[in-house]
Amino acid sequence: MTAAIALRRAGWQVTGYERAEELPATGTALGIWPAALRALERIGVDARAVGRPQPSGALLRPDGRPLAEIDMDALTARVGEPVRLITRPVLLRLLFDALPSGTVRLGAPVADLTALRAEYDLVVGADGVHSTVRTAAFGPRYAPRPVGTLAWRGSVPLRLPSGAEVWGSGAKFGYTPQHDGRTNFYAVSRAPAGWRPADDLAELKRLFGGWAEPIPTILAGIDPAGLLRHDIVDLRPPLPSYVAGRVVLLGDAAHAMTPDLGQGGCQAIVDAVTLADCLAEGVDAATGLAAYDRLRRRRTQRIVRMSRLAGRLGQVHHLVWLRDAALRLAVRSGPPAAG
């Protein structure tokens, strides 16, 4: 939807095809970093108005002892403004409402890339980690690969003053307060690709029930019906280009990454606005697409690698003390630049 808004402003006529029947009513919070906020602002979307600054937090051990402080005031001073927490439904509604009615066709999955190529001057594949467009354009070799961890996420009706990420041996648990009195949570554990527990909530309690508060209270508040679970994957090998003729990829379709740096959604937004900049009115499409690929591919593929490395730290179950020392050093050094 960001691409649709941006391309319309750049002079293109746009039709969006979305397989979901309707916009989601519930969902977890996204951390929207300043580069993405500024990209949205440039296309007339004020995401700051619907988000709250992410509060400071901490990295903790499972017994509650601190590993490192996450000073969001210092981060704000470094990057220019706060990271904003925005729930996925709120962000999607904001984008959807910024488009003329009918621009995005809900309940309209795309199965045939050939038909789209015949009908449209440009096909933008923004269809996620398991992208049909990517497979049709580049083949099955470029596919998401499991990294060896299983993740659960959701939210509970619990008001907390601050968030934290708790690092154990081969597992971690994070929680972040939302603006509506709920708490967003995620849990990650080493697991063989494709393995599924018989009971997700029971598995979470087995893995994390003995960790320090507020984790047991969060676990007690989980509604199993709203608990999401998936293998963590990223895109390997990296694509040789984000462009194939008149087909261009953005977001997870182009560079699916693990969530360890919190950059997946942000980079998709920046992709979309950059693409529209490169395809501004009067620019030859082939020239503009080549510029987009040049501007975004190396940068986003670097973030994919950095995210994978950060995720591997979370999988460590030997020499945890050394991992913790590296983690403290990383936090003191500050986050990577990710514009």
Structure, briefly:
By secondary structure, the protein is α+β, with helices and mostly antiparallel strands. The chain has one domain (2-333): FAD/NAD(P)-binding domain (3-Layer(bba) Sandwich), CATH 3.50.50. Helices cover 37% and strands 22% of the residues.
What this model shows, in words?
This is Monooxygenase. Residues 242-306 form the FAD-binding domain. Keywords: Monooxygenase, Oxidoreductase. One of its GO terms (molecular function) is monooxygenase activity. It comes from Actinocatenispora sera. This protein starts with a helix and ends in a 6-residue tail after the last helix. It is globular. Helix 1 packs parallel to helix 10 (264-278) and helix 2 runs parallel beside helix 10 (264-278). The model has no long low-confidence stretch (mean pLDDT 91). It has 339 residues and is an alpha+beta fold. It contains twelve helices and 15 strands. The chain has one domain (2-333): FAD/NAD(P)-binding domain (3-Layer(bba) Sandwich). The protein has helices at residues 2-9, 34-42, 72-79, 88-97, 113-119, 132-138, 200-208, 215-220, 252-255, 264-278, 285-314, 320-333; strands at residues 16-18, 29-32, 52-53, 57-60, 66-70, 84-87, 104-106, 123-125, 143-156, 163-167, 171-177, 183-190, 228-236, 243-244, 247-249. The strands form four sheets. Strands 5-4-10-11-12-9-13 form a seven-stranded mixed β-sheet, sandwiched between helices. The protein has a three-stranded antiparallel β-sheet with strand order 2-6-3. It has a three-stranded mixed β-sheet with strand order 8-15-14.
